[in-house]
Structures are given as structure tokens and as C-alpha cells.
Amino acid sequence: MIKEAFYLENHPHVALNDLLKMTGIAETGGRAKLMVADELISVNGALELRKTAKILAGSVVTGTIDGQDFEITVLEGFPA
Fold this sequence. Notes:
- This protein has 2 helices and 7 strands; from the N terminus they run ββααβββββ.
- It is an alpha+beta fold.
């Protein structure tokens, strides 16, 4: 399983498709949108179908891409 931490860096939220792209889970924004449309992404354990869903600090985004499970934990602030 791939585990990532993503820091909001003083932003209130990040769009789901942007999060997938910025963490490298999706190679492009288009691929990120397809992953959401293909029902491959869950946020806090619930299937998420909104490409631009606002992902807040404390959220956990999970899914599977190319047979590999991943988990992104969204955190406030900056990396240490």
C-alpha cells in the first residue's frame, strides 16, 4: 500500500482531483478526473463522485490504481 501525507500549507482545502495530481497518484488532472468518475476514490470511507470535492484537513483519501492501493492523509500546516 502506498501511504502519503499531504499538507494544506495554510489553505482551507484542496480539490480532490488536484490532490490526486499533486501527490502523484494521477499523472494528469484528466487522469484524476477519470479515477473519480470510474468510482475508484473514497474519502473518509465513503465513495466520492465529485471531482472537485473540497478535501479538508483530517480527511483520508483511499483508492486503487493499477492494482495498487493507496491512502492519502490530509494534514494542516507544513511538513516538518
